[in-house]
Specification:
Layout: E1 16-18, H1 23-32, H2 36-42, E2 56-58, H3 59-72, H4 78-83, H5 92-100, H6 104-118, E3 122-129, E4 132-139, H7 148-165, E5 174-176, H8 186-192, E6 196-197, E7 203-207, H9 209-213, H10 221-238, H11 244-255, H12 263-270, H13 274-283, H14 288-305, H15 310-317, H16 322-337
Parallel strand pairs: 5-6
Antiparallel strand pairs: 1-2, 3-4, 4-7, 5-7
Helix pairs in contact: 5-6, 5-7, 5-10, 11-14, 12-13, 15-16
């Protein structure tokens, strides 16, 4: 979740963020080595760009620089530590909306509503699971890998938002990461103070239903309406049009392995009929089944490259066992080899 990227026009057709979001990283590297300018240059970035409030850079470069910065700083948990410094003001009016929300649920609903429109190539949202609230975050482009630093920064920053706006002692029920478990989990365990799971289909924070629905403050309806209107106007100026395929793929990433991904459920989320959904996907040359297959294949490939056991991959992707996963994988391969 990139800080301060939200209210600037994005690079046309490219997932991008404001160059100034790199300032905290640059500050860390400046303190520890003299390699800052070399690191930026290796990714085609000039230090002067960081001072320009309107300068934009591709998100892929941001993710790559974040990973390299952790190496240069010799701090594997750099993203997580920077996330603990996150403030509502770092995401402008959206952060203010979060901070005045009456409940944690409303805060995350607003975050889900607007973050997707201001940081492209991202799937984020909320859903219910066993009476609890699940907040998800995932960069869609599989070529943006590794991306441990962005993932840990984003989830720690989201947790910090809750603690700074609702309750300092709050902790999630569970936190999921899409990357494999690091050798040293102590920093993350100390920050979240809850069970952690790795190698999941997306990054997630599970909030207890009682915490999500507890009323912390009474909102000022007039102030909320003004802020909502202001954010909506800014979003309209920066929004890049998503195809129906991209929106469906995003929902699949959010739900896969945790909630049935069915035509009626996806259509309901998009507020269109099942027939309309099928027709619009067909117009873009795909189907819900194809998109589920593609998403599973991408996640499976990433996990297999990391030597994750088949049984674990099957569990993450929502298969009954490794045999069912093996059969599905063979089906994917036949589909890929199929001409046309």
């Amino acid at each position: 979740m990139a800080v301060a990227s939200e209210m600037n026009r994005q690079m046309l057709g490219i997932a991008s963020i404001r160059a100034s979001v790199l300032a905290p990283l640059v500050d860390q590297i400046d303190r520890r080595s003299g390699k800052t300018d070399l690191l930026l240059a290796s990714h085609g970035i000039l230090r002067s760009q960081l001072d320009d409030p309107h300068a934009m850079i591709p998100m892929a470069r941001y993710v790559a620089i974040f990973e390299d910065a952790a190496l240069v700083a010799e701090e594997p948990s750099l993203g997580a530590r920077l996330g603990t410094l996150f403030k509502p003001s770092d995401i402008g009016p959206i952060g203010v909306l979060f901070s005045i929300s009456g409940t944690i649920r409303i805060g995350f609903e607003r975050l889900a509503k607007y973050v997707n429109t201001v940081q492209s190539a991202t799937s984020s949202g909320i859903f219910e699971e066993e009476g609890n609230l699940v907040w998800t975050y995932r960069l869609e482009d599989p070529t943006m890998w590794p991306r441990r630093q962005d993932s840990e920064f984003s989830l720690v920053a989201s947790c910090q938002l809750v603690r700074s706006c609702f309750a300092k002692s709050w902790k999630p029920l569970e936190v999921h990461f899409e990357h494999m478990a690091p050798r040293d989990r102590s920093v993350l365990e100390r920050i979240f103070r809850c069970p952690l799971k790795f190698g999941e289909t997306a990054n997630r924070i599970i909030v207890a239903g009682s915490d999500a629905n507890r009323l912390y403050r009474k909102e000022d309806p007039a102030l909320s309406a003004v802020l909502e209107h202001h954010v909506a106007e800014l979003v309209d100026k920066t929004r890049l049009p998503d195809s129906i395929k991209e929106r469906v793929r995003g929902l699949i990433s959010i739900y896969l392995g945790h909630k049935p991904v069915t035509l009626d459920a996806i259509a309901a989320d998009l507020r269109i009929s099942e027939r309309t959904l099928q027709r619009r996907l067909a117009e873009e040359g795909t189907s819900l089944r194809d998109l589920i297959r593609e998403t599973r294949a991408t996640i499976a490939a990433t996990n297999m490259q990391a030597d994750v056991q088949m049984a674990r991959i099957a569990e993450v992707l929502g298969y009954a066992d490794s045999t069912a996963f093996w059969r599905a994988r063979k089906s994917w391969e036949r589909h890929i080899r199929k001409p046309g």
